[in-house]
């Protein structure tokens, strides 16, 4: 059963989410994932995951130092990132 829901009919928490993603997307999310707990990672985590993927893609097998300089990390950290792939 579909019904028209307006922003002013939402709870404050749902209204806040609808303000960010739009009412249509909120209702789609409710339809697809209603009743579930959803974890949203921090911005820092999302960017770190993206950076680590780029490092793995650009790793040639011996360019630890170059990647460390390019991404502002240590060679030890670059080694840990590429070992996790």
From TrEMBL:
Transmembrane segments: none annotated. Pfam families: Mor. It comes from the Bacteria. InterPro entries: c-mor_Regulatory_Protein (IPR052411), Homeodomain-like_sf (IPR009057), Mor_transcription_activator (IPR014875). Residues 15-84 form the Mor transcription activator domain. PANTHER family: MU-LIKE PROPHAGE FLUMU PROTEIN C. This is Mor transcription activator domain-containing protein. It comes from Desulfosarcina widdelii. The lineage of its organism: Bacteria, Pseudomonadati, Thermodesulfobacteriota, Desulfobacteria, Desulfobacterales.
């Amino acid at each position: 059963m579909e019904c028209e829901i307006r922003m002013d009919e939402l709870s404050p928490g749902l209204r806040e989410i609808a303000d960010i993603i739009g009412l249509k997307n909120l209702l789609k999310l409710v339809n697809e994932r209603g009743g579930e707990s959803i974890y949203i990672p921090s911005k820092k985590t999302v960017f770190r995951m993206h950076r680590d993927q780029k490092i793995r893609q650009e790793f040639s097998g011996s360019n630890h130092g170059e990647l460390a300089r390019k991404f502002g990390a240590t060679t030890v950290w670059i080694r840990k990132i590429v070992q996790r792939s």
